[in-house]
Amino acid sequence: MIQRNQVSDDVRNVFRRLLKYWKLYPIFLVIFVGLAFLYIKSKPSTHELNAKLVVHERERGVADPSSFIPGSELFAGRNNFENSLLTIQASPIIREAISKFNTRIEYYQANWMFDEELYNSSPFNVVMDGAVPQLVGVPFQLEVLSDTQYRITIEKGSGGVYDFINNTFTRQIEELNFSAVGEFGKPFETDNFKFTIFLEQNDLTNLHEQKYKFIIRTDDQLVARFKSRLTLEPANLNGTVVNVWFRTGNAVKGMDFLEAFLETVINNNLERKNHIANSTINYIDSLLESVSDSLRQAERTLQRYQSARDVLDVNQSAERLHEEFSRVREQKAEYESQVDYLKFLSEQIGQDDNYTEYSMSAVMALNNNSLSILMEEYIGLVAQRNRLIENQQTKSPLLSQIESRISNLRKTIRENVRYSLNIAEQDLRKADSRLATIQSQIRQLPETQRNLQTFKRDFRLNDDTYTYLMQKKAESQIARASNLPDYEVFDPPSYASLVSPKAKKVTGFAIFLALVFATLVALLYDNLFGKVKDEKDLADLDDTHFLGEVLHTRSLKKLSGKNQFSAQAESFRTLRSHLLAFCKDGQPHKAKSELILISSSVQGEGKTFTSFFLSSGLARLERPTLLIELDLRRPRLVSNYIPELKGRPGLVDYVNGETDLKSIIYPTSDEGFFIIPAGSISPSPSEILESEKFRGMLEEVKKHFEFVVLDSAPLIVADTRATLALADAVVMVARAGYTPINVLKKTFENMKEFNAGKVGVVLNDVTMGLNRRYYNYKYGYRK
């Protein structure tokens, strides 16, 4: 409980110290809130936009809604959510999104605080000549002179001259200074740039007063700027919704970019998924061209043979043999095609691991489900690896994992192809053997019938092949038409918030800083230069008793004569009562002579004033009181309060042996109140106060006076320190609004080193306010 009360007292003490400097708080609040207002007005606004994108994950073996369509299982791409977060914001995608709206030239209006971007609202339009290298990254300052002329200015511009055709920098420019006048609608050309400026606004009233800027940027610069402001993060841990955040200084421009970016992401993904289907269709078209020629030739040959010989096919045996021969021959052609495809695929896998258009087409033609799945996964991994390399993530652990999976898949595919090739070659040999048997049987048929069956067989073979290819082409086209992107805009782009400057946050922080700085300044000033103001400022002094306050007195008349009942006189009576209790150990009427030393920390605190009127007040209690002037260096007692004693012998004269003790004790107008003045000026006051004669004098006067009051010099003077140990009680005088707190504390610390007895403190020159307890008190008998 004691510790808790101590903490509470410390808090109240700090609060009280701060309350003395309350004026600092409104001053600092005005300063810091004003600075916050200037900061808010001078800082460009940064807006944050948001959209939500759903990533549809598809894994191998998971059914797809379009899987009922023949061939669609070959184009159902696999997607990984973690990889999507990396690949969606790839530089090529951002570059394509930027190309969908005009951002290569940025327009600004120059304000005294910051440059405001003018997106789709510039009063002029700059058309750049793309065939000429242009100065990029340097602000061109434009001033409208009239409806036909303008001034272009470049001040210490540093940048590069960029060739937009070859996408390379041709040279660097350092601290270019340039100024020239141009005409609207006419080309403006120098060695470093060429463009034409068109005035889009007819009203020139405000244009003459404004200054504008425009900057030409390269695609790489734009990609870097937009990419740094784009952030993608999962909306939650378990879902596949992506939060797309974009920060921009112009909300309209940011909204256009975000819409173009999302559109590009979806279209790019769909194009990648349709790539396999398009490659397959192109491959089938190339086969159809050759098959259609063979089909037309077989049809014409059959028609000419039948017309020339007028033959009829009546031999069922021959028909059966030729049908079987055609069927086996078709099987052989299919086996040969499989062998060719497998050999081609084996060569492709063996040569490199890059994606080729016809590798997947060959797998499709084989109708090998397991091999199709492996190849489709293999191609997807290669695409993921290429995207990581494009995004310059060659050191990513994910890239190492993908490389390992690619290597393992290649080995699996090789083994699958080798096994399938062996099976296909065995089937091909069996088909050859069966064809040889059927041909032997056909040779036994009549020649005309045999030739007719041959022509019909060729026609049917080409016709079946053509029909088969058309069917596969239709399946591929249906599969392509049914493809859906892996990304879907769940929540379209919208305005999220103002990122900076946030007026409430900045103002709140400014108020916080104002309070902190005002508190620190108040505490620092109070510790270094703080003055004693009231009794509470003396509460921290250890082993010290507060005796009372002396009110501010403009005239000494307030303390004597008819003004004995004034508030100032009442304050001295209160001080006298407290001093009696302090010196007499709580027994004011105790018969004991008391030697009281009254001093101060520095000069000007009113110790002599306090000594004189306090001694006078003690004498009025019919207690003999002697006041001795010990400030031998700057004596003020006689000159200020008893001028009639000026020049009379005093303490110095007595110690020097020039007079006796009785001769230097002078009575005053108050009965029982006597004074020993300082007397002559001594060249060595310390020797006077440290002499045995002076100490004997004190012992002597204590026998005749109940109170001996010593009006000493401030404690910073060595003279006073010699008398501290002689006093029964030491009264320190501090002046309100004058005595430095740190000096007073240091003084009390030094007093302990000189063995001072009881120490009390009096606060002098206190201004009487509404909270003071003194009042005019008049009470007496009326006649």
Short description:
The protein is an alpha/beta fold and 783 residues long.
Task: Using brief descriptors, characterize the structure shown.
disordered C terminus; 783 residues; 47% helix; alpha/beta
Kindly describe this structure.
This protein has 783 residues and is of the alpha/beta class. 47% of the residues lie in helices and 19% in strands. It has 20 helices and 22 strands. The strands form 4 sheets. Strands 15-22-21-16-20-17-19-18 form an 8-stranded mixed β-sheet, sandwiched between helices. Strand 18 and strand 19 form a beta hairpin. The chain is elongated. The two termini are 58 Å apart.
Could you say which overall geometry the principal axes of the C-alpha atoms support?
elongated
Instruction: Tell me the helix content.
Output: 40-55%
Number of helices: 20
**Strand arrangement in the largest pleated sheet:** 15-22-21-16-20-17-19-18
pLDDT below 50 for ≥5 consecutive residues: which ranges?
Answer: 59-79, 774-783
Q: If you average the pLDDT, what whole number results?
A: 80
Structural class: alpha/beta
Rg over alpha carbons? 55 Å
Largest sheet: 8 strands, mixed
Percentage of residues in DSSP E strands: 15-25%
- The termini sit apart by 58 Å
The tally of strands reads 22
